[in-house]
Amino acid sequence: MTQQQMILNVTSRDSLRFDSFYAANEENKDVLELVTAFAESYDRKQFFLWGETHSGKSHMLQACCYHATERGQRVSYLPMKTLATYGSTAARGLDSMDLIVIDDVDRVLGNADWEEALFDLINHCRTGKQRLVFSSTQNPRYLECELPDLASRLIWGETYTLHALTDDEKQDALLHRAKIRHLAISERVMDYLSRHYPRDMGSLLTILDVLDQESIRRQSKITIPFVKQVLDSS
Amino acid sequence: MLWSDCLKLLENDLPDQELNTWLRTLHGQEHDDTLLLLAPNDYVLKHVSSYYLDRIVILVRRIKKNDSFQVRIQIGSADYVAPMAIGTEQPHIVDPAMAAAAPFPNSLQQPSEFVNPNMHTGASLSNNLGQSQPFNQGYQTTGRHVNPGLTTAENQVIFANNLNPSLTFDNFVEGKSNQLARASAIQVGENPGTSYNPLFIFGGVGLGKTHLMHAIGNHIKAHNPEANVVYLHSERFVNGMVAALRHNKIEEFKNYYRSVDALLIDDIQFFANKTRSMEEFFHTFNVLLECQKQIIMTGDRLPREVENLDDRLQSRLVWGLTVEVEPPDVETRVAILRKKVEHMGLDIPNEVAFFIARRFRSNIRDLEGALLRVLAILRLRNTTTITLDFVQDALRDQLAVMDKMVTIESIKKLVAEHFNIRVADLDSKSRARSITRPRQMAMALSKELTNHSLPEIGEKFGGRDHTTVLHACRKVRELIQSDSRLEEAHRILSRTLRS
C-alpha cells in the first residue's frame, strides 16, 4: 500500500481531544498543558503553534475548538490547506466568534489578499475580545510574509513548538490511540506495520482507521495476516 | 438548545474538522416551528446548504418529533443585535460579513440579507427552505443624530468608538525613541482640533504608534465623554466604503465620518492603490479640518514615501505635525517589560529584564510575545519567581531559532562573495555601479530577511540614512522585474540565506 492509496474515506472513531493527544516527551507534554490552559482562559489573546507535518498540530487545534465549544464559546476553524484557493472572503464575517483557529497559516502567506484579510482579522480581534490560534510548519519568525505588519502580529502572542515523534514514540502514540478505541494491537503487529508501511504519523493513523473499521466490519482480530489482507488489497 | 442538541448528534457522524469548519461556526435560533441557522459568510452558507442541510433537517425533525419542523439558513449573527433587540419581539438579524466590512465602525445597523438557500441547493425544497423572511427587521439608521429615542446604553453601543480603553498615556512607556511623539500626542489629547492638526505618527511595525493613537482618543474622551471619537484601521474604512457603495448607503457613510469630533485612522499606507477610498477620505479629511475636528493618522513611513498614495492627500497629511516613533533602545525595552510585569503583580529582576530586552529587540510585539510565553510557563510551573535560568529555559526554543537567524553581517558576507567584492566595499562611499548594485542588493535582503528597521540597516552600511535603504529596496524590486541576471542573483542569495 502506498501513501497515495491511503487517502481513504474513513472516519476516526476517537475524537480529537486533549485527552486523546499522545504527548510522547516532556516538551510536548508542556505544550499540551499550555494549549489546554490557553483554551481554558478567556484573557489570553493569541497563540501560535508550529512544528513539522504530522507532529499533531491539527489534533491540538481541533481539541482547542472542542474545548471552547464545550464552554459555550463560538468557534471558527479555518484550515488553510483547504481554504487557500477559495479566497480571503472565507475569513469574512467572523466578528462574532469567540475563538478563531487558523490552521496552516503559512499556506496563504505571500498572497496579498489573504495577508490583508489576516492582518485585518488580527487587528479586529485585538480591539475586541476575540481570541486567535495559528499553526504552521515553520517558525513564525521565518514565515515568508509580504506584509511586515502581519509578520510582527503573528509573533505577538505565545509561540510554542510541537516536536515530531521518534519512531518508538510513534508506535506508542499509535498504541495509545488504539487503546482509546479498545482496539487490541500486539507489538508484533506494530513492528510489522513499522517495517512494511510508511512511518509518518499521518499514514499510521490512517492505517489505524482502516484496520479499525475493517476489524469491526469483518468481526476479526488484528493479526499480521489480517493486516496484509486489508492493507495490501486496499 | 435545539442547535446544541443537533450538533451533539452530528458529532457522532462527522469528523472534528468538518464540525469545526462548517457547523460549530453556525449560530442557531429556534423560533416557533423553525430553526434559523446563521452563517458568518456566504462561503459557509453555500457549503452547509450543499452538504449538511438535509442531514440537519432530518436530525432536527427527529429531535422535535415534528415532521414539518423547518430549518432555514442565512448569513447573519445574533450577537450584533442584542442591544437593538431590546423591546423588540422578533430577533433582529444583521449580516456580520458586512459588519466585517461595515460602512460604520460600530457595525450595528447594517441591512440584513435574507439569503435564499434554494439558490445554493438547486431544486431541493424538501427542507422547506427560503420561503418568507420573517426574521428580517430591515435596515435601521445609525447614530444618535437619527436615533434620538435610544437609551443611553443603546447609544453607548451604537457609538462604539473602537477605542481600546487599556491603551492610555499612563501605561505608555516613554523613551528617547518616542519622546517627541508622546509629547505631541499629549498636546493633541489636551487640545483636540487646535494644535497639531492633523497629527501624523510614523515608524516601523510594533513600535507603539497604535498605542499612542488610542491614548489620544481615550484622553479626549476622558475630558469630554460626549466627544464622538472614532478609531479605525484604514482597511476597515476601505471595506466599509465598499459595503456602503454596494448597499447604496454612501451618503450615510460620508455623513457618519464627516460628523465625528476626532477621526483616528491607523496605517494609512493601506490606502495605497485604493483610489475611490482615497478620494473619499480626502474629502472627509478636508471637511473635518475645516470644522477644526481632530485628525490623527499613523503610517509605516513618511506620507511622501507611501507609494501610490494620492498626491493631494500626501501633501495634506503633512499640513499639521509629523512625528516619528523609532525602535526603542534597550533601556526603554526594559522599562516596557517592567511595566507589563508590574501590571500583573509580579517582579522581574534587572538582569532578567535586560536579558529579554537584549534578545528580543525587533519590535515591542516581539518583546511582548516572549514575555507572554515566560508568564505562561511560570503559571504552568506554579511559581511566581522569575530567574535568569528560568527565562533561558522557558525561551530555549525561540532563542535557539534566533541564534540561527539571518544577520546583516551574514548577508553582507554572502553578497560580497557573490559579486566578488570586499565586505568593506559595501560600507564604503564608492558610487561605482559595480559596488552600488551589490550594496543595494544587500540592503534589500537585509530588509526582507531580518527584523532590523530601515535606520538600523542604514547604520550597518556605513552609517547611511534610512531613505537610502528605502531607495535601495525599491531599486532592487524594479531591477528584478527587468534584469534577469539580477533576478537570479536575488533568488539564489535569498534561498541560500534562508536555508
What's the structural blueprint in terms of helices and strands?
The complex is a heterodimer of chains A (234) and B (499).
Chain A lengths: L25 H15 L5 E6 L5 H14 L4 E5 H4 L15 E5 L8 H16 L3 E6 L11 H7 L3 E5 L4 H14 L6 H10 L4 H18 L5 H10 L1
Parallel strand pairs in A: 1-4, 1-5, 2-3, 3-4
Helix pairs in contact in A: 1-2, 6-8
Chain B lengths: L1 H12 L2 H8 L3 E5 L2 E6 L2 H10 L1 H12 L5 E6 L20 H5 L17 H4 L30 H7 L20 H12 L8 E4 L6 H15 L5 E5 H13 L3 H9 L3 E5 L8 H16 L3 E6 L11 H7 L3 E4 L5 H14 L6 H10 L4 H17 L7 H7 L1 H8 L4 H12 L3 H5 L5 H17 L4 H7 L5 H17 L1 H15 L1
Parallel strand pairs in B: 2-3, 4-7, 4-8, 5-6, 6-7
Antiparallel strand pairs in B: 1-2
Quick description:
Chain A folds into two domains: about 20-160, Rossmann fold; about 165-230, Helicase, Ruva Protein, domain 3, CATH 1.10.8.
Give a structural overview.
The complex is a heterodimer of chains A (234) and B (499). Chain A folds into 2 domains: 18-161, Rossmann fold, CATH 3.40.50.300; 167-232, Helicase, Ruva Protein, domain 3. In chain A, 46% of the residues lie in helices and 12% in strands. Chain A has 9 helices and 5 strands, in the order αβαβαβαβαβαααα. Chain A has helices at 26-40, 57-70, 80-83, 112-127, 148-154, 167-180, 187-196, 201-218, 224-233, and strands at residues 46-51, 75-79, 99-103, 131-136, 158-162. In chain A, helix 3 (80-83) links the parallel strand 2 and strand 3 (99-103). In chain A, helix 1 packs parallel to helix 2 (57-70) and helix 6 (167-180) runs parallel beside helix 8. The longest helix of chain A is centred in the last third of the chain and has 18 residues, at 201-218. The model of chain A is unreliable at 1-10 (pLDDT under 50). Chain B is of the alpha/beta class and 499 residues long. Chain B folds into 4 domains: 2-104, GMP Synthetase, Chain A, domain 3 (2-Layer Sandwich), CATH 3.30.300; 159-325, Rossmann fold (3-Layer(aba) Sandwich); 330-403, Helicase, Ruva Protein, domain 3, CATH 1.10.8; 408-498, Chromosomal Replication Initiator Protein Dnaa, Chain: A (Orthogonal Bundle). Chain B contains 24 helices and 8 strands. Chain B has helices at residues 2-13, 16-23, 42-51, 53-64, 96-100, 118-121, 152-158, 179-190, 209-223, 234-246, 250-258, 275-290, 311-317, 330-343, 350-359, 364-380, 388-394, 396-403, 408-419, 423-427, 433-449, 454-460, 466-482, 484-498, and strands spanning 27-31, 34-39, 70-75, 199-202, 229-233, 262-266, 294-299, 321-324. In chain B, helix 10 (234-246) runs antiparallel to helix 11, helix 14 packs across helix 15 (350-359) and helix 21 packs across helix 23. The longest helix of chain B has 17 residues, at 364-380. The relative contact order of chain B is 0.06. At the A-B interface, helix 1, helix 2, strand 2, helix 4 and helix 5 of A face helix 2, helix 3, helix 5, helix 10 and helix 16 of B. Chain A: It holds the Pfam family Bac_DnaA. Chain A: It comes from Leucothrix arctica. Chain A: This is DnaA regulatory inactivator Hda. Chain A: Residues 18-157 form the Chromosomal replication initiator protein DnaA ATPAse domain. Chain A: Residues 167-231 form the Hda lid domain.
